[in-house]
Amino acid sequence: MLAIGRSFLTVSGLIAIYIDPTEPARLAELTYAVLFGYVLYSLIVVAFVHRASRVAPRDGEILHGIDILWVATLTFVSSGPTSPFFLFFLFVQLAAAIRWGFRETVVTTAVTVAIFLVETGIAGAWNPEWFPWTDMATNRSILRVAYFVVTGCLIGYLAEQEKELRAEIAAVADAARQPRVELGLGGSVTAVSRELLRIFDAAAIDFVIQDFETRRTMLWRVEPHDERTASRRALHLELDPSQQAAWLFDDPGRAWHARQAADGSGYAVRVAEPDVWPLQRNSVNLPQALTAVRRFTTLTVGNLGLCEEWRGRVYLFDAAHTDNLERSLHFLESLTEHITPALTNVFLLRRLRSRAGAVERARVARELHDGAIQALFGIEMKIEALRRRTTLTAAAVQAELGDVQHLLQAEVLALRELMQALRPIELETSDQLPDVLASLVERFRRDTSVSARFVFDGHPISLPAPTALELARIVQEALVNVRKHSRARNVLVRLTNTDHTCTLVIEDDGRGFEFEGRLSSRELEKRRVGPAIIKERARIAGAELAVDSAPGIGARLELTLDAGVHA
Fold it and tell me: What span, in angstroms and rounded, lies between the C-alpha atoms of 123 and 75?
């Protein structure tokens, strides 16, 4: 950008003096030569920047120094302090602001003012010989110097603010990326704490989170040495109710800073209010349990959380980057505001997984209670009755023992199915789906002695892996239903994949459902019939379910996925 701006400025200056050659009135040929050289230099820099993959900082410093020399030479040979190219110095100031910031721009301004003053002095001393036409009044010189200084300071200040803003945006983006589902809540909090430790250069960080549903409060502590050990989690503690009051006391605002008084008598507190830039003075009584944990001079605090779900508080002890306290506190407020949604996702997913685990455990307990435990209780009663009946013949005893053995075999099979349902299906990509289904059908045939077959037709499967997993679970559930309810002697599972659709069909010659005919998924929901778990899994997979039933003859389940579901 600077290279193009420099070329445009120099070419524009050359065109201007060509169209109106009245200025400069003296040393015109030399001025043309210097300006033409500056144009060539600008074009060479454009070519260099275009070909280079990146410009090193050292190259930028060299180019900046050469620009100052070119502009100083050009203004000197073209009427000195009254040169029409006076505003070329503004380009030099802008270049310093874009490349660096406030300090470098101020230094550049000081150099340009010094050059201007030297040219003014030369013009005054050599006015009759070199600059006979120059009428450089003192007041005009003062105004031009003031113009240089004010412009340089304002441009430098704006450049510094823009640089800090970019750094803050990058820091917010980095911090918001730290919470990740695969890290879990503890790993995400640790990653965020390490990022805050790096940004604010704090001596230590304590991060507190309270779950409103369980009323549990957790504390993570991160020290500077933990930052160098990325794989190591922070010290993790669960707080009791008395400790909760010490860490989650009523504080004065969303972000605030406390500094200990010189005599150690208390803390001076400054609070950042939303949409109000000046900090507000306030007072806070820090709990003794908090101040006794660590020795610190300053404490910077930010609050975050989601109403009625969770709340958190981050404590930064002796943060070094608080020279501009207003900016630091408002930055911390913005940072916690952006971190909150990412942490909320991890937090709620953790709660959802906990609930799902509880639901699954309750289902397994119900299955065991209604199935294996009841069956074992029945077997116990049958054996007890058999023990008391001493008059039974050997044939009758054999018959009773055969019934017991049949019940035991049935429950062993039911427990095996329950274990298979709990075991994760190893299916990483959809092209493994036919092999997985074939394995499920073969295991069902071997365990139940039901004649079961699997057939696959068509192109290789190209479904999203979660969708393919749902289809495998549907086949697993359907085979369990066949064993428990259908009393079928034959089962066929067919998977067909074409360019436009993928179809899964499961049919048997058992009892069928309580209705007759073909019903779509919408009709099944309306009439509240059909296999509930399979209907739910079909909805998750995005498949269209249709069920054909002929009571006493058999049933047929058909799931169809259109091309839009394909990966």
Answer: 12
155 with 105: CB under 8 angstroms? yes
- The dihedrals phi and psi of 453, each to the nearest 5 degrees, come to -130, 150
Question: Global pTM?
Answer: 0.59
Sign of the CA dihedral 389, 390, 392, 395?
positive
The angle at the Cα of 318, spanning 312 to 320, to the nearest 5 degrees, equals 110
Listed range (121-135, 235-249, 515-529) with the worst mean pLDDT: 121-135
Assign domain 425-565 to a CATH class. alpha beta
* Residue pair 496/458 in contact by the 8 Å Cβ criterion: yes
Instruction: Report which DSSP code applies to 253.
Output: S
> Within 126-240, where are the H helices?
138-177, 184-200, 224-227
Cβ–Cβ < 8 Å for 256, 284: yes
Q: State residue 201 phi and psi, 5-degree precision.
A: 50, 50
pLDDT digits (tens, 9 = 90+) for 159-189: 888 888 888 888 888 888 888 888 888 888 9
- pLDDT per position as a tens digit, 123-140: 544 455 544 444 555 677
Q: Which residues lie below 8 Å from residue 437, measured CB to CB, with a gap of 6+? A: 454, 456, 471, 472, 475, 493, 495
What are phi and psi for residue 136, nearest 5 degrees? -95, 95
Report the 3 state secondary structure along 473-495: HHHHHHHHHHHHHHCCCEEEEEE
262 phi, psi to nearest 5 deg: -60, -35
Residue in the block written with tokens 């983006």: 173
Distance in angstroms (rounded) separating the CA atoms of residues 263 and 240 = 33
CA–CA separation, 221 and 319 (whole Å): 15
Q: Are 382 and 406 in contact (CB under 8 A)?
A: no
For residue 251, pLDDT beyond 80: yes
- Whether the CB-CB separation of 450 and 548 falls below 8 Å is answered with no
> Exposed (0-12), middle (13-18) or buried (19+): which is 478, by Cβ within 10 Å?
buried
558: burial class by Cβ within 10 Å (0-12, 13-18, 19+)?
middle
Contact at 8 Å (CB) between 490 and 549? no
Question: Thinking of the domain 180-352, which architecture would CATH place it in?
Answer: 2-Layer Sandwich (3.30)
List, in order, residues 6 or more apart from 339 with CB less than 8 Å away. 175, 176, 178, 179, 192, 304
Residue 529 — φ and ψ, nearest 5°?
A: -130, 170
Element (H, E) at 396: helix 394-422
Contact 520/555 with Cβ under 8 angstroms? no
Torsion of the alpha carbons at 54, 58, 64 and 68, rounded to the nearest 10: -150
Compute the distance between CA of residue 491 and CA of residue 482 in angstroms, rounded to an integer.
8
Kindly list the domain boundaries of the chain, sorted by start residue.
2-172, 180-352, 425-565
Q: What is the mean pLDDT of the chain?
A: 83
Residues in Cβ contact with 336 at an 8 Å cutoff, skipping those fewer than 6 apart: 254, 255, 302, 303, 304, 314
